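so the lab meeting is tmrw and i was supposed to have these ready like two days ago... anyway. pasting both below. for each one the top line is the aa sequence and the line under it is the structure tokens. i havent really looked at them closely yet so no promises
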Amino acid sequence: MAKLDFISGIHNATKRNYVQRVVEFDKAECAAVSKKFGQEYFDGDRKYGYGGFRYDGRWKSFAEKLIAHYRLKPGMRVLDIGCAKGFVLHELKQLIPELEVAGLDISEYAIANGMESVKPFLRVGNAMALPYPDQHFDLVLCVNTLHNLYLPGLFQALREIQRVGRGGKFIVMDSYRNEREKVNLMYWQLTCECFFTPTEWEWIFQQTGYTGDWDFVCFE
């Protein structure tokens, strides 16, 4: 159980205008649209989320780190909770074609528009009730998803991750270490229902029995 710096390179590669999101737009209206996790969030205007994002290969280095750290091999099973269109699973399958992958996301739009290379392995579902047997996966991922749950749902999702994973587990959440990062996070986020300091997150892991690894996204 450890903090792994696997996400900072991807996060820091994107430039963000924090003030613009609360000055030029109706932030409350934008957040209400974003939380539907539909077309506007994934492929609409930037004020609603990704901003018409088209995949550019940015998750390849992340997949390589996962493979090296968790010693993934052909035949192993990997679950990505909050998989969106399946970018991470796509990269994992490109690197290890014989890997067994599964992706789960609450968004019907994301699953319907998933990457063709992994679309057969994606399904609509909820992190709080994972439709998989106990100890089924060698690696369970959950990147930038858990902070979209209210606290009771967050606790349940962490317990579910612990239940279905028999090997490695790696999750990523929004966090803040000082007042500047807290303000930036509140300005930028659209879908967060809970966000905590690293110490608070680690306390939550202890309360739920989560024994996997983690990383944080901080808005500097």
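ok protien two:
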Amino acid sequence: MAANPATPVGDSEAIAQLQQRFEAHRRAFLRHPYPSARERRAHLYALAAALLDNRARLREALRADFAVHPDATADLVDIGGPLGRSLAAARQVRGWMRPERRRVERLAFGSSTAQVAWQPKGVTGIVAPWNFPFDLSFGPLCDMLAAGNRVLIKMSEHTPACGALAAEILARTFAADHVAAVNGGVALGRAFAALRWDHLLFTGNPEVGREVAQVAAANLVPVTLELGGKNPAIFAPDAVTAEHVNLALDVKLVNSGQMCVAMDHCFVPRPQLEAFVRLARAHFAGALQDYSRSAHCTGIISPRHFSRQLQLLEEARAAGARIEQLDAGGAVDSRTRRLPVSLIIDPPAELRLMKEEIFGPLLPVIPYDSVSELIDSLNRGERPLALYLYTHDRRLIERFRDGTMSGGLGVNASAAQAALDDLGFGGVGRSGSGRYHGRDGFREFSNPRGVFVRGRGGGFDNFLPPFGPRKQRRIDALFALRRLQLRLARFRAG
């Protein structure tokens, strides 16, 4: 089952190797298009075992690519995330595979039956991002394996150590024509997106996501896009408390804010703005006062991304925005690409900080005067991947649930909705399309094949020519029945 990990020595050779792998996967799928539940469980258990067996090496690769990367973050997200999902999928895959019966109207179709049979799509692709290189490659791999597919993964060029290790692990765990990872730069990424996949998953920013969708559309390839966005957090008047402020800031610290579901900016009632700042500063006055110097702080992924964070901060300072550095003992460290956590208070709307996804340890804090005006403003903007609301007011929770739009909604917690193995995850509008994780992922990467088996009786022949007076009377009787059904339904509805 072993295969050589992809180690491209040039764009043309890497692309040729990719094409060969893709064709091998397609041939293998055609030979065995419907793996049994037992086979799928075995594949998922093999992935789980690989994650457990390589825990130390996975941690090491993350440290190599990020300069500083806490082992706890690696354990809980990049390793623990796909580990939990693989085991959960293995427990449930037999039930997911079971065909679903659908209603058949006896008057028209007699004893005929109908069902949805979940069929593997075939050869599926994953374009993984750099921020959680294992969670966002091996994680969706769980869903695709549960659905019975063959899978190729394009790892990010920003995480070469993680990419090389992923290719090695998959090569030792799966047959070469079943699951594999490839590594390369932009040219390989474009060639990857241009293949005639049976389904393609891309995780990244909206600009690149648009290009991927356009390239895939040329081959009519269905795509799942997870594109992030500027996720707002709203603090209701009852929620500017130490409990809520501390929790929201702690989640912002995960991976130094390099997380698609991180709180990008927050809204605070104007009368409580200073209370919010005091609570935030108090939270960092203890164990977090030198946070950016500590081993708990993840490095920014690359010098370019690190420089961008500094530029965003400097632009805000030059525009006269008030900046509150929370970890008072922190410092900018270009060697390890770490920088202090900072609040930017009520920044001008024209700043890049307010237009671009931040993806770092900077947090704009924006005062608001009216919940109604805030909801209207949110609805006029782009639909984010996540929206967070901090409150204990049930009516307000329902108001945001029913009156706003986002890929996910978190109440009194950030990012938790993306960590559940049985809750569909994805965006809407500019923040993405499609859902995966658990049953939703199984269905996303399966073909819901409608199956009809004709039985006896019914008026099926009424649909078929030639049409005469006798068939027309049957058709008229059917319409009379429909009118009666409508009247009864309206009566029952009041």
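from a quick look at the 2nd one: The longest strand covers residues 113-120. DSSP finds 17 helices and 16 strands in the chain. will dig more after coffe
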